[in-house]
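User: Here's a protein and a ligand (NAP). What would the complex look like?
Assistant: Let me lay out the input and then the predicted complex.
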Amino acid sequence: MSPSLRERYGPWALVAGASDGIGEAFARALAAAGLNLVLLARRAQLLAGLAADLEGEHGISTRCLTADLTATDILSQVAAGTSDLEIGLLVYNAGATHGAAHVLDKPLGASLGLVALNCIGPLSLSHHFGGLMRERGRGGIVLLSSLASLSGGSYTAVYNATKSFELILAEGLWHELKPSGVDAMCLIAGATRTPSMLQSMPSFASYPGLMTAQQVAEEGLSFLGRGPVWVAGEHNRAIARRLLPNSRVAQVNALSAASAGIFGKPVQDLAGEDF
Ligand SMILES: NC(=O)c1ccc[n+]([C@@H]2O[C@H](COP(=O)([O-])OP(=O)(O)OC[C@H]3O[C@@H](n4cnc5c(N)ncnc54)[C@H](OP(=O)(O)O)[C@@H]3O)[C@@H](O)[C@H]2O)c1
């Protein structure tokens, strides 16, 4: 029998963006698997309600961190709030965009906020927790991205660019950390029914082929440790395969070898599954 999620990534997981949607679904799936949870988001009341549910239903321990992932001191807040816990799994979930507009028609501050949420946040938390996981020789990191990461395009250009950052960062972390026993991956979601999306676009409810947050989280957790990138949903995988027709594992190995060659560093080809 293969080791359970708790054996591989326990005793604690941190879900950044846990109060609703895909993050809440991750929290519920991880609690059902017996992991203790640090639940991070801005709405304290929602976090407290979820924490009470999960403790009651699964007998796990929880800690709520009320924080804004775009805050300039987010890393010190999170590090201080978790310094006594062994976090074996980081799920960096928060990161949806709200509304659609050309780059120049949006306030620059809104776009810089997305850069903070989708680039600085995942890099800072991965650097902190990934370092501790590498020392222990075990752990997992899941960065949530989007089909929008696979191309530039009008109306969500900055969102697409920041989601690309998460994809490329997760692939690099996969290659760098796997030899140390730490599993990093990018989970790409397509259209998924979440409170965030319904709030920013009520007509989203009738968008064809919406996935549930639970389906997305469960697919991600079942792929963790098998390869660098998973795309949730067969329909979304078909779209992604048209946009990214080559093996990601082969590409990450090839680019790692090229960088190692240029800079005279050691490198090894890694085995992994593609989406
Ligand atoms: N839903 C989709 O159709 C879809 C499609 C493709 C990709 N994705 C990706 O899936 C992930 C989750 O998406 P989602 O639709 O569930 O919506 P989301 O708005 O990215 O996530 C909602 C969760 O993140 C928290 N959050 C948002 N901004 C935060 C901030 N600045 N600081 C702390 N917490 C924050 C929210 O809690 P608080 O409001 O309480 O802070 C809530 O718990 C995102 O990375 C998104 O890009 C979603």
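Summary: Residues 108-136 form the longest helix (29 residues).
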